[in-house]
Amino acid sequence: KGRESGIGFNLYDGFEPSGRMHIAQGVFKAVNVNKCTDSGGTFIFWVADWFALMNDKMGGDLDKIKVVGNYLQQVWKAAGMNLENVVFKWASDEITNKADIYWPKMLDVARRFNITRIKKCCQIMGRLEGSLTAAQVLYPLMQCTDVFFLKADICQLGVDQRKVNMLAREYCDAAGIKRKPIILSHHMLYGLKAGQQKMSKSDPDSAVFMEDSASDVERKILKAYCPTKEVVPEKTEQLADAGKESMQIVVDNLRNPCLDYIRNIIFGIPGALFSCAGTDYTEYDSVKAAFLDGSISEDQLKRALIDSLNNLLQPVRDHFTNDVEAKKLLEQVQQFKKETMKPSNKPRRLDLVGAGMVEANSHLVFAPAPAPKPTLQEAVNVIACLRAGATPRVLYLTDWTARVCNSCDADAKALAASYTILLTSLSALDPELMESVKVVYQSTAILSDPSNYWISVINVGRHFMLDDVMGNEMQDSDCVGNVIGRLMLVADAASVNPATIAFAGKADTPSTESKLVTEFFEKKLADLSPPAVSDVGGPSVVLQRRQDIAHVTENDEYFLLDDPKVFGKSKMKKAFCEPGNTDFCPPIDVASAFSFGIGTDSQSKSVLVSRSAENGGDVSYNNRSEMETEFKDGKLHPGDLKASATKIVIEALQKITDAVKADQEATKASKALKAFQKKMSKKKKK
């Protein structure tokens, strides 16, 4: 129909240049590609050399990997693939040159699915839940991204990839994309040994390979499994074999690899003829029936298959003997096989120190996730974390992680505006500190060397089991983007290679993030000095503690964009302040934070509580313990305490307000966040 209408369409499949090509990838693929291009399509081959590099194929030498990729193209040419409407795109070039397009798309895919959905895709790898590495949830997301990055109309991959391809269609629903990719799956040929659901490149005798000699083909086929009776698998066997039910398009309990080759390779070619036991067969069903009723013996079937396969492979052998370019490529690949290729022990990572983006031995702090209404507590936590380490200090703004974790609904303008308000507020609250801080945007850092960065992210994922990355905080129903975000955080830390890292949290309880960073440096980055990682508990400035999140109100804490004149007093008036209770006393917390110092080297000043002479007159406190003692003893009245804390917090909020008004970019950011809040409010009502 595509040819008749004159409307072109794109199909795609991918392959990793790993050095070998079995007959299904060679002849079977050539047949399928020709059918597609003859119908008016353009077939795009995604040459996954970047993934081969990541997997240390050919010793991690990209030039050698490209040689193998070119060799495989010559194999297809010799196998009869019509390359006129075939395009080969090299992942290393495409992803690196268009990293600003590819990776944001992957992040967008990830943020729209929960962990449970991605785990279903991982079953195609034959992995049971609980045995997944964190990297294995990243692969389906990237494969889904490939579909849209390559602008594929049809996904022409093996049926084992069906669940991932369906993910692409589901993404269209989530992202509002009307034109969904069509899934055109092909059959997966059995391995030649009993019980092999598909061929394996790691097992030379599981398949006939395109470079096999005539004697190799004969040996493999004569040894091949060739049953005549069907075997119905037990239910327990089906359950134990995760994902194998997806390997075949139709139910086949015979699972005879010899018949499978005849059906899909020999008769896959238009007009094919199969000569066996003195009879010429023009259709597969007749061959199968003759074999099952005993008209064709196992030896006769195998001998005829050997002849047919060698007839198909002989043009390939001749091509690599007679074509100068092909012969040279084959010689190079054969030489690679002889060489002992050891991957580099040096882990690949983004090196921001080497790139001059950060100083060596810095103190690293990650900014909190952007929010439509950034809080005063978040700013206080950042200041506490920054002051917990010495100069040089780096404040890392993880804007791409914010996208994948759905912060601000992944709205680029809102994310940028939230960071602008945070930075403006930090400078207003502690200008001296911020002068010593180098601010780094994650996206800028990544795009300076995207290949090494994302390889490091995947390597982090390979090292950790998925359950370890999820920790106790994540559930399978949560967004898988949260998993990706944690992998990115570890890679971010590796890219800065700091002397110290401070995470906002409870000082006596190491966070999952700090555990991941510490372990990865110790076990995988042995050539680097591991940073001293700490969880810093900044002073609390929240006004209420709620047991039930449903009871939380906007009066429970201060926001950076709160109007000091409106909210400074009204919120403090409603703050929890039980007489004599110093375990949780927000007015003391707020007054102490902004008077006695947020960090260890902060400048402190006294807190003045104004009272009438009848109530004891004005009193000045030089430290928190003095305030707590008098409040506990009843000498400091909650009303007087709140009045003093109100003045202090209004002063802090006024500094932020003045700084935002004085900065044009911050003023725009303030308006952008307010507009975004209205937008999200309308969205919730719908």
- By DSSP (H or I, 4+ residues per run), the number of helices equals 29
Largest sheet: 5 strands, parallel
Strand order of the largest sheet: 3-2-1-4-5
In helices, the fraction of residues equals 40-55%
Mean pLDDT: 91
Radius of gyration: 32 Å
Give the uncertain stretches in residue-range form: 238-244
Head-to-tail CA distance between termini:
41 Å
Beta-strand proportion? 5-15%
Task: Tell me what the structure shows.
- The chain is an alpha/beta fold and 686 residues long.
- The strands form four sheets. The protein has a five-stranded parallel β-sheet with strand order 3-2-1-4-5, with helices on both faces.
- Helix 8 crosses helix 9, helix 18 (412-429) packs across helix 29 (664-685) and helix 23 packs across helix 24 (512-524).
- It is elongated.
Entry summary:
This protein has 686 residues and is of the alpha/beta class. Helices cover 50% and strands 9% of the residues. The radius of gyration is 32 Å and the shape is elongated.
